[in-house]
Amino acid sequence: MNKIFLKLKYLLMVVIFLSAGPSCLAVSVNQQNKSLESIRQEIKQKLEENKASKAAELTNKKVELKVQIASRRAELNDNIASRRAEFKDKIASNQANIKEKFEKNKAEVIRKYFGLMVRRIERALERLTNVSQRISAQLAKMKAKGLNTVALEVKLKEADIKLETAKSSLTDAKTALEEILAGNLEKGVFSDVKVLIKDVVVKVKDVHKAYREIVNEIARMYNFGKGPKTTITPGVTVVPSPTVTLIPTEIPTATPTAIITP
């Protein structure tokens, strides 16, 4: 009896299930679809979150790298600026030391330079004096031979006057130097000393030119006369400064009786 009742119960359940089966299956499928969509959305959200996280991390790393680069660059600039400032200070210090030493020894430096120039000029004046004496002796010989030397004697006297003027100018320059050194050795004093030297040098050059013209005239007088030619060489060299150089060397010709070699 019980078995029959159970069979009927199962049969009734089967009939109920069969009558409601399609709707239950649809509900089950819909639930599965919703579950899959939910999983898909969850995966998509996680992927987007991971992407955003990586992007933020990359951005942070770029920012950190830029900060490090800027910091390093600023450090290098500071080092360069510091070294540049040290180098400028060192140069300024060296220049100040050189200037200080020069200021202390300025008078000595100027006097040494002036003394060197004076010695060169004095040697040139001495040689020119010797040339004057030889020209005078040569004119005496020419006069004894009956040649007209009046014009040359006048020129020689004029040249001798220029020579004495040059010597006097050199003496005045020495006095002026001591007056300059006794005062304040301000900027431009070295130029003033050079002007003193240049003035004397110009006069020495003028003296040399005058003697050279006389020697050339003597040579021309002999060349128009008779007899073999010879050489008159009043060589005088004055080197008063690197910028002023006198190298007068004339080689005219004359007879064997006229030889001047200072």
Summarize the structure in words:
- This protein is mainly alpha-helical and 262 residues long.
- It has a domain at 106-254: Butyryl-CoA Dehydrogenase, subunit A, domain 3 (Up-down Bundle).
- It is 81% helix and 4% strand.
- The strands form 2 sheets. A two-stranded antiparallel ribbon has the order 1-4. It has a two-stranded antiparallel sheet with strand order 2-3.
- Strand 2 and strand 3 form a beta hairpin.
- Helix 1 packs across helix 3.
- It is rod-shaped.
- The model is unreliable at 226-262 (pLDDT under 50).
**Radius of gyration from the CA trace?**
57 Å
Unreliable spans are 226-262
- By CATH, the architecture of the domain at 106-254 is named Up-down Bundle
Number of strands: 4
- Basic shape: rod-shaped
Beta-strand percent range:
under 5%
Please write the CATH class name of the domain at 106-254.
Answer: Mainly Alpha
Order of helices and strands: HHHEEEE
What class would the helix/strand composition place it in? mainly alpha
How helix-rich are the residues, as a percent range? over 70%
Q: Provide a count of the helices.
A: 3
Query: Which fold name fills CATH's third level, the topology of the domain at 106-254?
Result: Butyryl-CoA Dehydrogenase, subunit A, domain 3
Integer average pLDDT = 75
Largest sheet descriptor: 2 strands, antiparallel
- First-residue to last-residue Cα separation: 173 Å
Strand order of the largest sheet: 1-4
